[in-house]
Design a protein that fits this description.
- With 368 residues, the chain is mostly helical.
- It has two domains: 189 residues, no CATH class; 161 residues, Ferritin, CATH 1.20.1260.10.
- 75% of the residues lie in helices and 0% in strands.
Length: 368
C-alpha cells in the first residue's frame, strides 16, 4: 500500500469516528424534540443484528448501548466506503464539493439500508423498516454526512493543510460545536419541562389530539402487556414488548409537551370521548382478550390490537394532515407508520412484502 493510499485510509477512519459520533450525539439530543423516544429507537436498531434479544418492555442499557454501537459501526462503514473504497474519486475533492455530495450520499446510504440491507440481505430484519419511516434514517445519515467536509483537512499531514481548506474546516468544526451546544441546551430545558413554545394554529385540536392519543396509547399499553405475558408465539411476545416500550415513550413525550406548551395538567378523557375514539376497545372487548383461553389468546390479541392500531392510525393521519404544531404532525406521521407496520408484523410480514408494506405505510393515507 502506497503512503498516499495509507494516509487516505487513516483519514477515512478518523472521519468515520468523527461523523458517527456526531450523528449519535445529534440523534440523542434531538430525538424527543420531534416526538421520538431515543432509547426505544436505539433498542430497535440493536434488534437489527441481535434480533428478539434486544427487545424488552423497558429498554435495557445493554440494548441501548448495542444499538448505539451498531449505529456507529454502520455510519463508520459508510464513511470508509465513501473515502476509502471510493477514494480514487473522492479523496482529493475540495470541502465545498464534498459538502455538495454528502447529502445525496446520505439519501443513497439510508435508502439502501431501509430498502435492502436491513429488511433483506444480509440481516433479513423487517422490524426496522416497518417500525421507523425512511425519513428517520435519512435524518440520522444526514447528520453523519454533514461532517464529511472535514476529510479535506484530515487527509493532509499535520501542518500541510492548504489555507483555504483550513479556514473552511475551522468554520465547519465551530459550526458543529455550536449545533451540539444549541441542541444540548434545548434538550436540557426540554427534559425539565421547558420545550420550545407551541407553534400550531388550532390549540383546541392539538389539545384534543394529545389527550385522545395519550388515552388511546394507555389502553394499547395495557393490551400489549397482556400479550407480553401470555402470547404463545415468542416473536409476538417480543413485538408486544416493543409496543409497550414505544407507546410508553410516546406518552411521556405527550405529557411533557402538554405541561410545557399549556402549563396545566392534562385532563382525563371521559367515557363519551373514549367510546367515540376509533379503535378504542370497550370493557367487554378488553375482557374478551383477558379471558381468552391459552390456545386462542394469540389470535384474539392480534385481532383486538389490529383494530386498536387502525384506530390510532386514523387519529394520527388526521393530525398529519392538520394545522397542528409541526412537531405533533411529524410525530403523528411516525406513529401511523409504526402502528401500520406492527399490524403487518403481527401478520408475519417479511422480505420484499415488508419493504413494499413499509413504503406504502409511509406514503399512504388512511387505512380501512
Amino acid at each position: 500500500m502506497t503512503s498516499e493510499r495509507r494516509s487516505r485510509w487513516i483519514a477515512a477512519i478518523e472521519l468515520g469516528l468523527i461523523s458517527s459520533t456526531f450523528s449519535t450525539i445529534v440523534s440523542q439530543l434531538s430525538a424527543a424534540r420531534i416526538g421520538r423516544e431515543a432509547t426505544v429507537d436505539w433498542m430497535t436498531v440493536a434488534a437489527i443484528p441481535a434480533g428478539d434479544w434486544a427487545i424488552t418492555a423497558e429498554p435495557s442499557w445493554n440494548a441501548i448501548l448495542a444499538g448505539i454501537a451498531f449505529h456507529q459501526w454502520a455510519d463508520f462503514s459508510w464513511a470508509l466506503l465513501f473515502f476509502g473504497v471510493l477514494g480514487r474519486w473522492t479523496a482529493n475533492l475540495r470541502p465545498l464539493t464534498i459538502r455538495l455530495l454528502a447529502m445525496p450520499w446520505a439519501v443513497f446510504s439510508s435508502g439502501l439500508e431501509w430498502f435492502v440491507l436491513v429488511p433483506l440481505f444480509p440481516f433479513w430484519q423487517p422490524l426496522f423498516t416497518l417500525q421507523q419511516p425512511y425519513w428517520i434514517g435519512l435524518l440520522v445519515h444526514g447528520s453523519s454526512a454533514v461532517m464529511y467536509p472535514l476529510f479535506a483537512r484530515l487527509r493532509w499531514a499535520r501542518g500541510n493543510v492548504p489555507k483555504q481548506d483550513l479556514r473552511f474546516t475551522n468554520a465547519w468544526i465551530a459550526g458543529a460545536l455550536v449545533v451540539i451546544a444549541v441542541l444540548g441546551t434545548v434538550a436540557l430545558f426540554g427534559d425539565h419541562g421547558y420545550e420550545l413554545p407551541w407553534l400550531g394554529r388550532d390549540r383546541d385540536a392539538d389539545q384534543t389530539y394529545i389527550r385522545h392519543m395519550t388515552t388511546h396509547h394507555a389502553q394499547g399499553i395495557e393490551l400489549a402487556r397482556l400479550a407480553a405475558e401470555r402470547a404463545n408465539d415468542p416473536h409476538l411476545r417480543k413485538l408486544a414488548m416493543l409496543m409497550v416500550a414505544s407507546q410508553t415513550g410516546e406518552n411521556r413525550i405527550f405529557e411533557n409537551w402538554w405541561l410545557s406548551w399549556f402549563d396545566a395538567e392534562m385532563p382525563d378523557c371521559d367515557a363519551q370521548e373514549r367510546a367515540a375514539m376509533p379503535g378504542f376497545l370497550t370493557p367487554a372487548e378488553m375482557r374478551q382478550v383477558k379471558t381468552a383461553p391459552p390456545g386462542e389468546f394469540d389470535r384474539t390479541f392480534v385481532e383486538a390490537m389490529s383494530r386498536h392500531h387502525k384506530g390510532a392510525v386514523k387519529m394520527a393521519d388526521q393530525m398529519w394532515h392538520s394545522r397542528g404544531d409541526p412537531r405533533l404532525r411529524v410525530m403523528a406521521h411516525a406513529i401511523r407508520h409504526a402502528q401500520q407496520g406492527e399490524i403487518a408484523l403481527m401478520q408475519g410480514a417479511s422480505g420484499l412484502a415488508a419493504v413494499a408494506t413499509g413504503l406504502h405505510n409511509m406514503l399512504g393515507d388512511n387505512v380501512n
